[in-house]
Design goal:
The chain is an alpha/beta fold and 315 residues long. It is built from seven helices and 15 strands.
């Protein structure tokens, strides 16, 4: 049975590494399609094709105008568009933002920003990643079939489909048991001479991973119960981190998922996709993204003109 589903796009970050020769460009609005489309456009297009009815942009308030003028206004003819603002001042009562802090509070806090907008099952993605149609198909199927409000899922990509030709990338190596996520091992991953190695960020020894091992690319499926849990655990995060790293600590969704599993608040399934992921970790990655999209358009996976402004209606 098809359900109402929302795509939540985390777009508050500014992509500081996407620069070359002092020429900075915001990754979220880098033009990669033949008519100036962004990666966000292709994400929304794929989501619409798989039955999503609403998109929510999580952005900084000061970026609202540029998102409205670029992608927001042009896709609103095809899907309901909402904006949620990640505000550094949006913290529990009794706490204050440390002097000198301007860094957002992390991905869990970004999701929490949409708590008053989303009342249906939803998928989160990064604004500057291309996830592929199959990933949205898998996510939509999970959300449509899920009958447990305390069951979430990670969309797992084969690691070979997520690498960059231009250097190491950060990936969450998925350990699973009986179709459920056991652990996410955040690692630096690189391929050399056909061998993929992962170096865990927590200091564990480097390991060789199979090309079809699953990794998380921050495409996650939730029900609205996640808002309750993130909000309830936020004070504990602040208590543990403000005295240690007040300016840079981040409330991250992998940590929230791990705690939710340990405390049996929720179970986390692992859903496999065959999609190929594209992103722009390095400036040089953009050329590959543009070329790959061009090939997909030639194959008919996407129309040359992604949004036909003359239709004036949703797809």
């Amino acid at each position: 049975m098809s359900k109402n589903k929302t795509l939540l796009i985390m777009a508050a970050g500014m992509g500081s590494r996407f620069s070359q020769d002092g020429n900075d460009e915001v990754k979220q609005i880098a033009k990669v399609g033949p008519n100036g489309e962004f990666l966000i456009d292709y994400s929304i297009y794929d989501a619409i094709q798989e039955g999503f009815q609403k998109v929510v942009f999580v952005i900084k308030k000061e970026h609202e105008m540029i998102f409205r003028q670029t992608v927001g206004n042009r896709v609103s003819k095809y899907i309901q568009v909402e904006y949620a603002f990640q505000d550094i001042q949006d913290i529990p009562a009794g706490y204050s933002v440390p002097a000198g802090r301007d860094k957002p509070w992390g991905t869990a806090h970004a999701i929490l920003a949409a708590r008053n907008i989303i009342n249906e099952p939803f998928v989160i993605i990064n604004a500057d990643d291309f996830y592929g149609r199959d990933a949205y198909r898998v996510a939509a199927k999970f959300l449509d079939n899920n009958q447990d409000d305390h069951c979430y899922s990670v969309i797992g990509y084969q690691v070979k489909n997520t690498l960059s030709e231009n250097g190491a990338v950060k990936r969450g190596i998925c350990l699973e048991e009986n179709h459920q996520l056991v652990e996410l091992i955040e690692s630096n991953v690189i391929e050399h001479d056909g061998v993929i190695t992962a170096t865990p960020l927590d200091g564990r020894s480097m390991m060789i991973v199979d090309q079809e091992s699953l990794v998380s690319m921050n495409m996650l499926c939730f029900t609205p119960t996640i808002f309750e849990y993130i909000e309830r655990k936020f004070p504990k995060f602040l208590d543990q981190n403000l005295s240690v790293n007040p300016l840079k600590c981040e409330y991250l969704i992998p940590d929230v998922l791990d705690a939710a599993k340990r405390e049996q608040f929720a179970k986390v399934c692992l859903e496999r996709t065959t999609a190929k992921w594209y992103g722009m970790t390095y400036y040089e990655d953009k050329a590959l993204v543009v070329a790959s999209l061009s090939k997909m358009i030639e194959k008919g996976d996407y129309p040359v003109v992604l949004w036909d402004s003359n239709k004036g209606k949703r797809i």
